[in-house]
Amino acid sequence: MAEPAQEGSGFNIHPMDQFVVKPLFGDGPISWYTPTNATMWMALTVLAITLVLVVGSRGRALVPSRGQSMAEMLYGFTRKMVEDVAGKEGLKYFPYVLTLFTFILFANLLALIPTSFSVTSHIAVTAVLALAVFFTVTAIGFVKHGAAFLGLFWVTSAPLPLRPVLAVIEIISYFVRPVSHSIRLAGNLMAGHAVLKVFAGFAGALGAGAVLPIVAITAIYGLELLVACIQAYVFAILTVVYLNDALHPSH
Amino acid sequence: MEGNIAEMGQFIGAGLACIGMGGAGIGVGHVAGNFLSGALRNPAAAGEQTATLFIGIAFAEALGIFSFLVALLLMFAV
């Protein structure tokens, strides 16, 4: 374990303290039903999505208001992404992709509010999302194509002696998918928030004259805003790519 | 200057693991740079390929994130 920082240097901020899951009421042991700060921020995420999508599209005006236009853009953007990558058949699974995309996007953005809790920086959360995608996509592949889905691992465009080797590589890369899918999101978010806290620690140590750390925090915050959107997009588009593999398994 | 040798190994290992992030940086730069040079040659086709760009960046970046994860595990979990 890393030792705590030297005493007497302003206030000490440990960069990993922000990721601690705490119960909302009291500080008893945490079981699966205990409402924690993670529960609260996930609920707030769902609430924010509901506000933007349901309240935004309530008016159904021909000339959209600001809120309606935001909801329409979010919907249209995701729909176009699914259609471009997975084709017309993929649109059947568009609601799932929209759910994933909006949940991760809003969780990432809410995590950027100072003193909030970043839900998606926990591997437990992203792993469940990624495993759900993995099992769904595998099930869709087998239901749609039966045993022919295994053709995904048998690269017919390669020379015959190479195919068993490629099959091993393809199978490994298939099973690594949920790992990289979940760790990419959690790692990016965790790294970004830890960096913000490290610079906040510098600012705390320097006190009132901390111009440089504050400028750095502002710049990194902007970068994190970009990362929050890009990672949500990447998670959603990889879901669609995997879905496309299941719908059209031939290489 | 005291402490045990296992802790020293953890810190050195975490530092070494961070070298992997440089590789991810090279990879992401390569993807983005090649995209840009292609996009400047044929700007009309660039718009449709941004999804591919982000997928490529995501794959290249994942490996850097893995090394970051190894560093974090060494620092806080081992």
From TrEMBL, chain B:
Residue ranges that the Swiss-Prot or TrEMBL entry lists as coiled coil: none
GO terms for MF: lipid binding; proton-transporting ATP synthase activity, rotational mechanism
Keyword set, alphabetical order: ATP synthesis, Cell membrane, CF(0), Hydrogen ion transport, Ion transport, Lipid-binding, Membrane, Transmembrane, Transmembrane helix, Transport
Membrane topology label: Multi-pass membrane protein
GO cellular component: plasma membrane; proton-transporting ATP synthase complex; proton-transporting two-sector ATPase complex, proton-transporting domain
Residues annotated as domain V-ATPase proteolipid subunit C-like: 12-74
InterPro entries documented for this protein: ATP_synth_F0_csu, ATP_synth_F0_csu_sf, ATPase_proteolipid_c-like_dom, F/V-ATP_Csub_sf
Site feature: Reversibly protonated during proton transport: E61
TM ranges: 12-33, 53-77
Entry-linked Pfam families: ATP-synt_C (PF00137)
Compartment(s): Cell membrane; Membrane
Role, per record: Key component of the F(0) channel; it plays a direct role in translocation across the membrane. A homomeric c-ring of between 10-14 subunits forms the central stalk rotor element with the F(1) delta and epsilon subunits. F(1)F(0) ATP synthase produces ATP from ADP in the presence of a proton or sodium gradient. F-type ATPases consist of two structural domains, F(1) containing the extramembraneous catalytic core and F(0) containing the membrane proton channel, linked together by a central stalk and a peripheral stalk. During catalysis, ATP synthesis in the catalytic domain of F(1) is coupled via a rotary mechanism of the central stalk subunits to proton translocation.
Similarity section: Belongs to the ATPase C chain family.
Protein name (record): ATP synthase subunit c
